[in-house]
Write the structure tokens for this entry.
Amino acid sequence: MAKIIGAIGTSHIPAIGKAIAGNLQETPYWKNFFDGYKPIHKWLENNQPDVVVVFYNDHGLDFFIDKKPTFAIGAAASYQNSDEGWGIKTIPEAKGDEDMSWHICNELVDDEFDITICQELRVDHGLTVPLQLMWPGNNYSHLKVIPVAINCEQHPMPSPKRCFDLGRSIGKAIESYDSDQKVLVLGTGGLSHQLEGERAGFINKEFDLMCMDKLVYDPQDILGYSIRDLVEIAGAQGPELNMWLSMRGTLLGDIKQLHHNYTIPISNTGAGTLLLEQK
Amino acid sequence: MSYLNNPKPIAGTTLFDGKAARKGYSLNKMCFSFNEQNARDEFLSNEGAYCEKFGLSVKQKLAIKERDVLGLIDLGGNIYYLAKFVGMLGLNMQDIGAMQTGKTVEEFKAMLAKAGE
């Protein structure tokens, strides 16, 4: 059966993509942030996943609000990045794993998660920036990617508990998939930030650190927040914590935290990095 | 019960809910089009005509003309689509953060840095 070997929580903000394009990794502003990925690179080198499931949100590249899925999963042979309108450099396509995607979709619907299944899906910085962070130089062509998009753009948004349960269901689906593939899960986005309104620039360091801590061994403790709570406590984009909760949900076995980092501010956010290994 | 039934406002924050999504549909649809270079070119060559093409309201057209981000949010703009509008104009999230909070960009960045202390 396929095996989830670990999971990573990471920021996906566009400024990171621009910093990579500008080769700014060693500059004072960026150094602590990018240094936080070095232990992850080493772990990836040693563990070599075959498939990467990426929880992200589409910030208006493929999905518009004419039709806005709450949960959407890619089931394509490949995923293209594309112009987002404000100048972030696009990256090469990522390969998909149609067979595993359909298996996950079949099991999810059977488990009463009625997801939107996408045979064409353009992926934005929410997915591409994490790929660039994990595999510098865009060296991800040996991997297959399965995108899972969670609505974080239009209210109502799914609850933290629902997103954790979605992760649980995906974890079970992967562990029941007849293959010997090693799977890595990425939870992207966050942590606290607010882009819009008079409260723009709001960040809550204390809350971010508490969530990163709880997420590892006591995720149940942070599933009781409503989306409104997250907006109030962690800013208008605080609900992006949902992708981290889905990521954590996929880990059904014993886990160990191998690495964590937190840099504030990166652009307008508190940027968390977390590496969990599943035994 | 939906969390959106809580009538208490969150200071300095507008939730992009069904009401905003309806009010801002044309505005956001126009901003969504800016994913395409030819749409950006068309807008920049004649802003008024491009707004007209998408059926923006008089208030929305004025707020676009004045680059009034807070006004656009109040008129149903969604920050992710507005990001494509302001990004096309060469502004980043610190620039529009400063615009929305009445600070200079340096003051806004200093506020972000302070949150890390």
Summary: The longest strand of chain A covers residues 255-266. Residues 3-227+235-278 of chain A form a domain with the Protocatechuate 4,5-dioxygenase; Chain B fold (CATH 3.40.830.10). The CA atoms of residues 46 and 218 of chain A lie 28 Å apart. The mean pLDDT of chain A is 97.
